[in-house]
Design goal:
The chain is α+β, with helices and mostly antiparallel strands. The protein has six helices and 22 strands. The strands form four sheets. Strands 1, 2, 3, 4, 5, 6, 7, 8, 9 and 10 form a ten-stranded antiparallel sheet that branches.
Length: about 375
């Protein structure tokens, strides 16, 4: 009898083990939160849900950095091991799910650095509130800045920055040519007729919209156009010329991009983390073309991918000496390294499934008929 009971017990244990793995798949769906210490504490939230075919989908929020949702692709659960990839910022997470399914002990890795990030399942009453998407600016709102300052940049400041903090539009170390390129979606080579200081004298800009709400990209650029008309007395006319360009298309396979539908009318984020490291969030293909022509390449970039919507991705490559000339500082010379990222044209195909090709094409040109140096206030 004892032998029978022992055999039956062993059988029950085996049966229990067979049914243990699906429990994890059911219990991982939910809200998970933890604190990442990067010199300061950042509250991180993952919302994980079951998808079709037994798959998992998730969105990541860094609450203390604005809280905009970032697509997590893929989410993998193998036994008790949880793996998540956040393509838009080049980050990964890997951890071990506890036996009771209430916590995940793991590490966050980004830019070659790994930091502890332990997550706990959050009940509705204990979950950190995720910041709501800012109220959009009305379509008929006045497209002007209420307050704007334009000051000469510190000559020792390296690089160049365009950013939005809260509702403030800010630039650092930008020329008036940079501002025109941003406002009209043009490469510097598409601007003609201006004085020499247009591309040499650098300014910092801080501007606050007059209307309430968060402007979308087109509204923001319209306000910068108005700022240029008011503060540098810019008068232009349009023309069309055939110029050397790069054409951005989808490669031979499918594009390798994670769709982001969290805020389709929100501003994109494309902020270089160094020469040849471009994380992108909520960015369209037109946004990618614009940042490539504005910061990296020596000619206009024309988007012919036909891909609609917004995406998260990270593009990493080894730049050559022809790239990033608008930044002033030069990227370091490539050194023999088997682990170094490929060049831009290879990287964009391997990592994003896209292709850049050199050709000639008719493009818009902005002819400057009048301009003055900017007034400060």
């Amino acid at each position: 009898m004892n032998k029978v009971m022992k055999t039956l017990s062993r059988s029950l244990i085996v049966v229990a083990a067979l049914f243990a793995s699906p429990v994890y798949a059911q219990t991982i769906a939910g809200t998970w939160q933890g604190t990442l210490n990067v010199g300061k504490e950042l509250r991180i939230v993952f919302t994980i849900a079951n998808a079709e075919g037994g798959a998992l989908r998730a969105t990541m929020y860094s609450i203390d950095q604005g809280g905009q949702g970032m697509a997590v692709t893929p989410v993998v659960l193998e036994g008790t091991t949880v793996r998540m990839t956040i393509t838009g910022i080049g980050g990964t997470y890997e951890g071990q799910l506890s036996a009771d399914g209430s916590s995940i002990a793991g590490n966050w890795t980004q830019g070659g650095k790994s930091l502890p990030l332990n997550l706990k399942r959050a009940a509705p009453e204990s979950a950190w509130p995720i910041p709501s998407i800012p109220k959009p600016m009305a379509a008929d709102a006045p497209m002007v800045f209420e307050v704007a300052t334009i000051r000469p940049s510190n000559p020792d400041t390296p690089g160049k920055i365009f950013t939005v903090k809260g509702r403030q539009f800010m630039t650092i170390n930008t020329t008036v040519s940079d501002l025109i390129s941003f406002a009209y979606d043009l490469h510097a080579g598409q601007i003609t007729g201006g004085p020499a200081w247009l591309e040499t004298e650098k300014y910092d800009v801080v501007a606050q919209p007059q209307a309430e709400g968060m402007p979308n990209e087109r509204q923001l650029k319209t306000m910068v156009q108005q700022l240029l008309a008011d503060r540098v007395r810019l008068v232009t006319r349009r023309d069309t010329r055939e110029l050397p360009v790069y054409v951005l298309t989808v490669g031979t396979g499918n594009a390798k991009l994670a769709a982001n539908d969290t805020n389709p009318n929100g501003l994109p984020s494309l902020m270089f983390k160094g020469f040849g490291v471009l994380p992108a969030r909520n960015a369209s293909m037109a946004d990618l073309a614009r940042v490539m022509q504005a910061a990296v390449l020596d000619r206009p970039v024309v988007d012919k991918t036909g891909l609609a919507g917004r995406f998260d991705f990270t593009l990493t490559w080894t730049p050559d000496d022809s790239q990033f000339r608008s930044f002033g500082a030069r990227p370091p010379a490539p050194t023999p390294d088997a682990n170094a990222p490929p060049g831009l044209f290879t990287a964009i195909q391997e990592q994003l499934g896209l292709k850049l090709e050199s050709t000639k094409a008719p493009v818009d040109v902005l002819v400057i008929e009048r301009i003055e140096k900017p007034s400060e206030n």
